[in-house]
Specification:
Helices cover 80% and strands 0% of the residues. The chain contains 14 helices and no strands. It starts with a helix and ends with a helix.
């Protein structure tokens, strides 16, 4: 018996075990894979008889499984020599099961997004009321539920930034950056927060890290220029505006920034 047929036999012998474990989809997949291996092989009569018995046993197990019957109430038909027709039925069954899995996943995702939106609205209400610690507790609950959602952390940071809670905003942004260390927009946001906190040197360090990732973002250079304006480093303002214009010559705000820097330097 060839290696392919040995694999087919192994697939069929796992069907009942998988069903007992409640793994109906892997069981159906095992029959599907076995049939493909069998159909592309040349079988001797003894091998045909053996596989016919194994296939019939697997099909009977599928038909008798109550969990599978809820998903697919039709009886799967099989007779020796009709393996191709059986493969079509099994493929149809797999597609039906996959559709159900996809629908369930979409429902779960929709429920999660609905919960996230509700908690964000509730926490924003606490922020608006000046109940900052309560808002932070609720935001932390959200972050714990969605630990890999960097956009969520950035969104929360923006909400704290708008109410002047710069240290809180910085904390969420730094946590987001730990999960996504190449996210330019996070470096930009952190730089803005630190500039507002007048921690110019730390803001500059974050911006320089961002420049290690890309030098083709005109808004990054513009924000660096804004930092140097507050820091009153006019030559660096001019240089940042120049870099922004090299990336985007039509960037009108950067042109104004360069003109302002030159004016301040008496050029």
């Amino acid at each position: 018996m060839s290696t392919e047929l040995i694999k087919a036999r192994q697939r069929l012998t796992t069907v009942r075990t998988l069903l007992k474990q409640g793994k109906s989809m892997p069981a159906v997949q095992a029959v599907h894979d076995a049939l493909i291996l069998i159909l592309k092989s040349s079988l001797m009569k003894s091998e045909k008889d053996e596989f016919s018995r194994q296939i019939a046993d697997a099909v009977n197990a599928l038909n008798a499984d109550p969990g599978l019957r809820k998903i697919y109430p039709l009886v799967i038909q099989y007779a020796p020599g009709e393996e191709k027709a059986l493969l079509d039925s099994i493929y149809e069954l797999l597609q039906e099961m996959q559709n159900l899995v996809t629908e369930d996943a979409q429902k779960d995702l929709a429920e999660l997004e609905k919960r996230k939106a509700a908690l964000l609205t509730q926490a924003q209400g606490l922020l608006d009321a000046g109940r900052f610690e309560e808002a932070k507790a609720l935001f932390n609950q959200l972050v714990a539920e969605f630990p890999s959602d960097t956009d969520l952390k950035a969104d929360i940071a923006d909400r704290f930034l708008k109410v002047g809670r710069y240290q809180d905003a910085l904390g969420y942004l730094e946590e987001a950056l730990r999960h996504d260390p190449n996210a330019i927009h996070l470096y930009n946001r952190i730089g803005i927060v630190l500039r507002k906190m007048q921690d110019f040197a730390t803001a500059e360090r974050y911006y320089l890290k961002a420049l290690e990732i890309t030098r083709q973002d005109e808004y990054l250079y513009f924000n660096i220029g804004r930092l140097y304006i507050d820091w009153k480093k006019w030559a660096k303002v001019e240089e940042a505006a120049k870099k922004a214009l090299e990336v985007n010559p039509q960037f009108a705000e950067a042109e104004k920034m360069r003109a302002f820097a030159r004016k301040m330097m008496g050029k």
